[in-house]
Amino acid sequence: MMTNARQNDAVEQREACQQAQKMTATCEQFHVTVDPIDWEQFGMRAPVKVNNIEIASLLDLYQRESDEILRRVQIKLFEHAALKAVQAPAGTKALIWSPVDVVKPQEFLNLWIITLETDQRIPIIETISNGKRVYEYYNYTLNENDAQSLAKLFGPAKEGEYAVGEQVTIQERERAYTGKVIYIIAPGKATVNRKHTSRGYHTIAGTAYTNDMASRYLIDCGDGFPHIVNQSQVSR
């Protein structure tokens, strides 16, 4: 029995070593450097960390496709950057991760809005610097009088049923918000919800094409980065 136990431990150790090496290599392909994985102490339950930020256990990640591993890394690092940007109290969590559909190219790879449980909407950009992915606060100035900055992000201004400067109410994720129209953009990708499980239950706002061919609106509701909604979500 003791011999069998030792053999099983040895097999798990070899597996953990191989999977740790594979995980490190996979992340490097995406310009992500993981911290040394302590497979010797924890085996397959060793935590996978980036800059001391725990992503998940090796056991949880090793069978996943590489793109999904990257998404798991992004989710954690976007959240960490958002919490750091607003100096959120310990224990504060992100509730919603929303990729933003912007004009390409930009000075960044991706722009996501991270909505905290405090309802703050924090814009975080993902860039590559010195060969590594970096996540940092997007220092933006977006208002109805800054059409140049808005056009750089979202393309030329369009016309819509609601005018720039008009106060409106929007419906988003079963909640109502009141704010001001600051920009009108062409129809494109609409926000949809899909679920992602990573040591908890997170909501990710993804993108999908919509049949709503009316204009989209940027609405400043005073809670951080403007909301981007379809005309069907807006009312006076």
Structure, described:
The protein is of the alpha+beta class. It has two domains: 2-63, no CATH class; 72-235, no CATH class. Helices cover 27% and strands 35% of the residues. It is built from five helices and 13 strands. It has a six-stranded mixed sheet, covered by helices on one side. The chain has a five-stranded antiparallel sheet with strand order 12-11-8-7-13. The chain has a two-stranded antiparallel ribbon with strand order 1-2. Strand 5 and strand 6 form a beta hairpin. It is elongated.
Number of domains: 2
- Main-sheet strand order equals 6-5-4-3-10-9
Which structural class fits the helix and strand makeup? alpha+beta
> What is the CA-atom radius of gyration, in angstroms?
21 Å
Poorly predicted parts: 190-201, 206-211
The percent of residues in helical segments reads 25-40%
Summarize the SSE layout with pairings.
Layout: H1 2-29, H2 39-42, E1 47-50, E2 53-57, H3 58-61, H4 66-85, E3 94-99, E4 110-116, E5 121-129, E6 132-137, H5 147-154, E7 167-172, E8 175-185, E9 189-197, E10 201-209, E11 216-220, E12 227-230, E13 234-235
Parallel strand pairs: 3-10
Antiparallel strand pairs: 1-2, 3-4, 4-5, 5-6, 7-8, 7-13, 8-11, 9-10, 11-12
